[in-house]
Design a protein that fits this description.
Blueprint (H helix, E strand, L loop, with lengths): L1 H21 L5 E12 L4 E3 L3 E10 L7 E9 L1 E8 L3 E3 L3 E5 L8 E10 L6 E11 L7 E6 L1 E8 L8 H13 L8 H19 L5 H16 L77 H27 L1
Parallel strand pairs: 1-10, 2-11
Antiparallel strand pairs: 1-3, 3-8, 4-7, 4-9, 5-8, 6-7, 9-10, 9-11
């Protein structure tokens, strides 16, 4: 029903435009101007892209536009849909608007959606023209409307983004963090931050290859920078306290025995030689009666005692000299 009403409005407005045109000699062209614009078409598109452009007619001096009829032509684009953003209608090749006095506006717009059909190397274009009139009973005046157009270059389709290396880097990094105890907290935090950013890029449908490569490198670098925690040191039992050895009193220093001063032993006084005993006067020759007889005990012994005494004295002197000589050595 809505579609039917739109078509009906387009037909009515088209007929009105024809009436205005047939009676142009009776309709004044006012001093006001309006301009068309086409926005939303990128400078570069690819075959198969879907684009939406907006066609707008605007009064240059804010004088309300009571009605407008326009034509739109395209190249390299396939029509998909169109709609009016006000009291009007849009078809594949035309657009119209009409308003009562209270609904007049200084600007009207329509939206067109297309699919790029031109091959790479060609152009996709949109061109519009229109007529517009002021509002006023039996006194319509036309705007002088400036046409508009837009153009896009159809570029070769970009190579599909390869996320294989990124996904592998994410998986390898996650495997390293599986046990959660091997690496230091600081290096793990840095890798988790890189992982979060990489996962966002991996899930991004329109990510560029440059974004994917940068995210993969960031994860790989952070994984390579993981620092292993130092091994825990074994707990060492305290050594038992060793009682200090008792202080050993130093051995008393043995004073060297003083070297005895050589003592000059007095020369042993030789025993005085016994005064020579004068031999007794020879006894008179015994008479035959005086010759001792065997067993006579009257033979004298003193000469033997003297000789024994002299011999003992000499031997004592020799011993004393020897003892003195040993002490000297």
């Amino acid at each position: 029903m809505k579609k039917f009403m739109n078509l009906l409005m387009v037909a009515v407005l088209a007929m009105s435009t024809m009436v205005f045109s047939l009676g142009a000699s009776a309709i004044d062209v006012g001093d006001h101007t309006a301009a068309l614009s086409v926005t939303g078409l990128p400078a570069e598109v690819h075959t198969g892209d879907t684009v939406t452009v907006t066609v707008t007619i605007t009064s240059n001096d804010t004088t309300p536009i009571g009605g407008a009829t326009g034509n739109i032509s395209v190249t390299g684009l396939q029509f998909v849909s169109a709609k009016s953003n006000g009291m009007g209608a849009a078809g594949e090749a035309t657009f119209v608007c009409a308003a009562a006095d209270t609904a007049a506006a200084a600007s009207w717009s329509w939206e067109y959606t297309y699919k790029v059909s031109a091959p790479a190397g060609e152009k996709a274009t949109v061109s519009v023209t229109a007529t517009a009139n002021e509002i006023g009973a039996n006194n319509y005046k036309y705007f002088t409307v400036t046409p508009a157009s837009a153009e896009a270059t159809v570029a070769a389709a970009p190579a599909p983004v390869d996320k294989t290396a990124l996904n592998k880097a994410i998986d390898d990094a996650a495997a390293k963090l599986a046990d959660g105890t091997t690496y230091t907290d600081e290096s793990v935090a840095a890798l988790n931050q890189a992982l979060d950013a990489a996962k966002a890029v991996a899930a991004k449908a329109d990510a560029t290859q440059a974004e994917v490569d940068a995210a993969a490198k960031a994860v790989t670098d952070a994984a390579a920078a993981l620092a292993v925690k130092p091994a825990p040191q074994p707990t060492t039992e305290p050594e038992p306290t060793t009682e200090p050895e008792p202080t050993t009193e130093p051995e008393p220093t043995t004073e060297p025995e003083p070297t005895p001063e050589p003592t000059t032993e007095p020369e042993p006084t030789p025993a005085p030689a016994p005064a020579p005993t004068q031999a007794p006067a020879p006894a008179p020759a015994p008479q035959k009666d005086d010759v001792p007889k065997t067993g006579d005990e009257s033979i004298p012994v003193w000469p033997f005692a003297v000789m024994l005494a002299v011999s003992a004295g000499a031997e004592g002197a020799v011993l004393l000299r020897k003892k003195f000589a040993d002490k000297q050595h």
